[in-house]
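ARCHIVE RECORD
Type: protein–small molecule complex
Small molecule: iron/sulfur cluster
Source of inputs: curated submission
Record status: active
Notes field left blank by submitter.
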Amino acid sequence: MILISGCLVGLDCRYDGTSEKEEQVLESLKSVPLVPVCPEQLGGLPTPRARAEIVGGDGHDVLANRARVLDETGKDVTISFIKGAAETLKLAQLLGIKEAYLKGKSPSCGSGTIWKRGQLVQGDGVCTALLSKNGIRITCV
Ligand code: SF4
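STRUCTURE (tokenized, with ligand):
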């Protein structure tokens, strides 16, 4: 069983109410049971919602209380991002999932690089940071 970002399977859960379905990835995983999740929705954020980014670090820094997540209106949505990551981890642990395919560049699901002020910078999203800290292997899509 593999956890996968909901937007990658075609759920319209992105901040702007769209998806980013990845047909090739789905084809390569067609024999594997997939568990789609959207950490930002699980954290209680609406869809559509204001675009957000991490300020002052990356997802690891958010978990360590050294950075915050702010949306484009300036609202602090850090608690929702941490809650969504925790709920995603809870689901993975309940189902014994050890592997996740997550959408790249997102402040939640990004792995290796995330968007900040319109540029890609090094770092992981909040959910990716929490899952990887707990031994879940991440594949960035
Ligand atoms: S990248 Fe992650 S948080 Fe963003 S819409 Fe996709 S599943 Fe949800």
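CURATOR ANNOTATION: The CA atoms of residues 65 and 78 lie 9 Å apart.
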